[in-house]
Amino acid sequence: xxxxxxxxxxxxxxxxxxxxxxxxxxxxxxxxxxxxQAGKKLLLTGAGRCNFTNSQIDPDNYSSDDPExxxxxxxxxxxxxxxxxxxxxxxxxxxxxxxxxxxxxxRANTFVNALVNYLNDHHVTxxxxxxxEDLTSDDGVYVVNGRFRARTVVIATGGMxxxxxxxxxxxxxxxxxxxxxxxxxxxxSLVPLTTAEKDAHKISGAKVKCALTLYDHDHSRVxxxxxxxxxxxxxxxxxxxxLDISGHAVRYMAETGKEPVVSADLMPADTHDINCLIxxxxxxRIIDSLNGLIRDDLLNIILKxxxxxxxxxxxxxxxxxxxxxxxxxKDFRFTVTGNKGFDHAQVSSGxxxxxxLDEDLRVKGTNGIFICGxxxxxxxxxxxxxxxxxxxxxxxxxxxxxxxxx
Length: 406
Description:
Layout: E1 2-8, H1 12-22, E2 29-32, E3 53-54, E4 62-64, H2 67-76, H3 79-90, E5 94-97, E6 100-103, H4 108-121, E7 125-127, E8 135-138, E9 141-144, E10 148-155, H5 171-176, E11 183-189, E12 193-195, H6 198-201, E13 207-215, E14 222-232, E15 236-238, H7 240-256, E16 261-265, H8 274-280, H9 286-290, H10 296-305, H11 319-330, E17 332-339, E18 347-352, E19 369-371, E20 378-380, H12 385-405
Parallel strand pairs: 1-2, 1-10, 2-7, 10-19
Antiparallel strand pairs: 3-6, 4-20, 5-6, 8-9, 9-10, 11-18, 12-15, 12-17, 13-14, 13-16, 14-15, 16-17
Helix pairs in contact: 1-4, 1-12, 2-12
């Protein structure tokens, strides 16, 4: 059999690309995946709740080699386009918490089941437990593993995050066999960071709201910024605000071999004059006068970094010491030494460069090979950004497939 389209990868982008195609055509489609089921990584999204899009997507919150092409892809198929498709074609009704959208059930398997049921209704062939090992061309037909033949191929194999779900970065050697492409090495993104400061490791489990700034190694250039709840761990730092800057930290280390610095403003909206608080309670210990601002365990570290004994009476604290305490509250620093790797990364950065693809995400120099989803050199922050790119890029690739076949 010769399929009209063979989709390699039964993750978010692959499943949606097939669904999109079938909503507009009666193509013969097969989906191949190395797992024994579809949507394995999709089941993990949003801690199993599946935050599948965001109504306030800002293209500037992505990293890519071609920001203009990325912006065009996102604008041509946005959050509302996907929400409409999900309800109209899949029967999935969305619920939102501010700008974040979830299935009304708040269960990722609701979404996976809806996609799979839709594809089964349209008689898609699923080829499970089969990794795509080679891709060749034979008289105008593409051949995968020497036996699966198709007029067009969509590669949606993902990156390298959560490798136990089958993400191995296989897109690069697969496509190199048939096309000359540019790519960026896959790196972990949306990943917890390891840090050098042992004092902060001792309060593992502590959480604090803050504003983060990621600097280069000598604190001279801002690489990224974020805000939210920071989680201290026994190896470093985590939490959504950390994950959002992590890709920039990982790429900086890979490119320079140097360790960036994270500065946490532990009182981003606070205008209290620390010295005024110290003067107000002269008979109190310094630890007792400030614990209404910062939790005790973190305050202990701040005082030690400031060279002030926690039992010092406020009346004995000098103006210079007060200024140091304030600086450490507003600029609490971490030296990034690494990250927790692909096993703990929600997505990958890197992949096939958008510049190697045409406007329809067809690989330049080929007649019918398309790439979408995390296999591309695009990664965004937390909050539905990466799934929205999966939907948007899958829609763009599906449109290209239809043009190619027509």
